[in-house]
Amino acid sequence: MQLHFHQVDAFSDRPFAGNPAMVYHLEQWLDDALMQQIAAEHNLAETAFVVAEGEGYRIRWFTPATEVPLCGHATLASAHVLFEVYGEQKPRLDFQSLSGPLSVTREGRHLWLDFPRINAQRLTEPVAVAEALGCEVQEIYQAKELLVVLASEQAVRTCTPDMVALARLPGLGVIVTAPGEEHDFVSRYFAPSIGIPEDPVTGSVHCSLIPYWAARLGKSQLHAYQRSARGGELFCRLEGERVKIGGQARLVASGTLMV
């Protein structure tokens, strides 16, 4: 069996930046175990599998270790492949997923994800979080991930967490965030418990970051930067119970997997 794949750097307009994702546009679903093996073989943070369904698509995401319920950058990468490789003409693509209906809209050079808003709940600081991150913590919130607020962009940039300790914490991973120097806010995301020590650029965690920063800064349109080694720029909008996350994407490789 031969399967065609496309690698996209999401949230970047150039290669070797943003967050790489592998995309498979399938005619029909593969066995779950095979999709997991394929994701492990590529060993990227996320591999997306897309199958046409009705007027849109169904999408699933796998890390090298497990299937996950939501992934922003691999959704953006999948839409880019459908537009640029498979010639989709509709300006909006609709996806069904484990997290419900999602959509991606093309506006000029940018693709906009439409995801559900997630409201994080403030916690009393567990000592284990500060110790695992190795830095001083200002506030901690619980969403699907732990959302940890630091004092400054410098604190986010220099954070050097203990991955073993982070993997023991509840939730899918740990977001660290702070006010930005040139952006409204910056962040980093660590998810060692699902096989991702640090994710370069993570659309899905902005489902909780956008409501937090919109309330704190008193604005519904935000400019964000994920301060990983590769880095990535995100344009953010809060629209009621939905968040819009915009960015660019670049196709960097295509090939055939033989299984």
TrEMBL record:
- Extract the coiled-coil ranges from the record: none
Question: Lineage of this protein's species?
Answer: Bacteria, Pseudomonadati, Pseudomonadota, Gammaproteobacteria, Pseudomonadales
Q: Which UniProt keywords apply?
A: Isomerase
Task: Quote the protein name from its UniProt record.
Answer: Isomerase
Q: Does the keyword Ribosomal protein apply?
A: no
Q: Can you tell me where the transmembrane regions are?
A: none
For this protein, the record's Pfam families field holds: PhzC-PhzF
Q: Which GO terms describe its cellular component?
A: cytoplasm
GO MF terms held by the record: isomerase activity
Active-site residues annotated for this sequence: E46
Source organism of this protein record: Pseudomonas soli
The UniProt similarity line reads: Belongs to the PhzF family.
